[in-house]
Amino acid sequence: MESHQTRVLVQLRDLILKGEFEPGARLAEIPLAEKLGVSRTPVRLALASLEQEGLIEPSPSSGYMMRRFTPREIQDAIAVRGHLEGMAARLVAEHGLSRQLTLDLQDCLREGDRALMKAQLDYDDYVAYSNMNDRFHALIVEGSGNSALARAIELNNRLPFAAASAMLPMQSAVEEGQQWLVYAHRQHHSLFDAMQRGEGTRAQALATEHVNVARLNLETALDRPEQASQVMPAMRLFVTAA
What is the pLDDT of residue 202? Predict the structure, then answer.
């Protein structure tokens, strides 16, 4: 995914988290393109990605509209991704990293290090980190060599905020967001180390634990009323879990 398109996707996710769109609101390409100051093409591609992530759904008239979902739905999807990616990491460690996979993962780690060097991140930095993060996770799944596992992860990623980078905009809304990213990227380094050493059990545990960053970001959005101006408006998108 090109950086420009990713930037639009990150911006739209952020607007969703900040409650910019009511449940059922229609999302049309032209108004969104004007709002973001971009052409319609990256908006169209970003909307298609958001549909795949389960955040929006086709509108009966045309285009897309916001959907409503429960916090439990997100929590369950994040937990499932953790277990699936844990299995993928274990398989990679047990099979052994190929030279190409090693180089590709090391390249991701360096990109993440560079993205987090600044004292304060802006949207472009989040885009760079998001691109790296998506690639890092995809490389591990691909490296597992298990096509059924890859399909299961792809299906789970269609649930709201389940995909690897789906929670990153939420981090930008809280003061300690950059610290969480630094922590998450340290986990990337530890996960790579475990896979490189062939430590399957450790790699699985690290990958499963890694999704807790996303879970904690969700809990932050739900539980911090003092951040209502930034985060709580998005709670209109949630319905109370049964």
Answer: 98
Query: How far is Cα 118 from Cα 99, in angstroms, rounded to an integer?
Result: 31
Sequence spans of domains, the chain: 3-66, 71-233
Beta bridge partners of 58: 64
Residue recorded with tokens 């591609």: 45
Which amino acid belongs to residue 133?
N
Q: Which residue reads 């609101």 in tokens?
A: 25
89 burial (CB, 10 Å; 0-12 / 13-18 / 19+) is buried
pLDDT for residue 71 is more than 90: no
Q: What percent of the chain has pLDDT over 70?
A: 85
In this structure, the strands spanning 64-66 and 56-58 are: antiparallel
Q: 3-66 sits in which CATH class?
A: mainly alpha
- Comparing 78-92, 141-155, 228-242, the range with the smallest average pLDDT is 228-242
> Beta partners for 64?
27, 58
Where do we find the tokens 């319609």?
A: 40
Which one has a higher pLDDT value, 239 or 207? 207
Angle at 111 between CA 153 and CA 140, to 5 degrees: 25
The highest-level CATH class for domain 71-233 is mainly alpha
